[in-house]
């Protein structure tokens, strides 16, 4: 069922979008970690950062999920590596972690694969999952400085055919809930939720955007 996209819903969705953005200033790192998803623009961004010289090694992480098993023949990580390869990244510069099923596993499994000689990492994910990735890596890989970034995609351009705007809103609502609940479980660090974000979250839940809760 397609839920309504009233002006109030769109305004609330944009409030959540703005809250989820991080876009850290970049610095040279030992490893760029691309979090797998439906959004191959993340792989393109990883390739761009590689060619710009921010790191000499990429690690793509992610199994296939509910959305991506219909999009890719193999895992998200393999699809991202193939895309980065088409963007000129050599095979020898890429590691593939094909088992992670959520952001927590993305971070934990990448940490295990990366080894002990990592001094700084760059996390690349979808724009709307930057804050969740930041909170997760700070809780689960705290000893290594981590910068978080994403493709430079506008809110209006983020939806794609396989993942329309309603799906994006469901995801952003669910991630706000996780930011409230996950710190007590040790999955993420605690973060302050502004009143405007809490109000937008409540409006969207009441409007039916609760599939990721």
UniProtKB/TrEMBL annotation:
<feature type="domain" description="DUF218">
    <location>
        <begin position="30"/>
        <end position="174"/>
    </location>
</feature>
<dbReference type="InterPro" id="IPR003848">
    <property type="entry name" value="DUF218"/>
</dbReference>
<protein>
    <submittedName>
        <fullName>YdcF family protein</fullName>
    </submittedName>
</protein>
<dbReference type="Pfam" id="PF02698">
    <property type="entry name" value="DUF218"/>
</dbReference>
<dbReference type="GO" id="GO:0005886">
    <property type="term" value="C:plasma membrane"/>
</dbReference>
<dbReference type="InterPro" id="IPR014729">
    <property type="entry name" value="Rossmann-like_a/b/a_fold"/>
</dbReference>
<dbReference type="InterPro" id="IPR051599">
    <property type="entry name" value="Cell_Envelope_Assoc"/>
</dbReference>
């Amino acid at each position: 069922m397609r839920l309504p996209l009233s002006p109030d819903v769109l305004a609330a969705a944009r409030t959540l979008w703005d809250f989820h953005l991080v876009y850290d200033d970049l610095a040279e790192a030992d490893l760029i970690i691309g979090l797998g998803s439906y959004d191959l623009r993340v792989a393109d961004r990883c390739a761009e950062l590689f060619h710009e010289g921010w790191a000499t090694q990429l690690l793509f992480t992610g199994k296939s999920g509910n959305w991506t098993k219909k999009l890719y023949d193999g895992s998200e990580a393999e699809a991202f590596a193939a895309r980065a390869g088409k963007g000129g990244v050599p095979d020898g510069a890429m590691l593939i972690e094909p088992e992670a099923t959520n952001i927590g596993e993305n971070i934990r499994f990448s940490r295990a694969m990366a080894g002990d000689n990592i001094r700084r990492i760059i996390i690349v994910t979808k724009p709307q999952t930057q804050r969740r990735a930041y909170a997760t890596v700070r809780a689960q890989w705290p000893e290594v400085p981590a910068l978080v970034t994403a493709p430079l995609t506008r809110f209006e351009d983020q939806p794609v055919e396989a993942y329309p705007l309603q799906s994006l809103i469901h995801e952003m609502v669910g991630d706000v809930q996780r930011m409230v609940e996950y710190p007590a479980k040790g999955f993420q660090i605690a973060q302050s939720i502004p009143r405007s974000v809490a109000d937008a979250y409540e409006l969207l839940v009441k409007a039916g955007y609760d599939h990721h809760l």
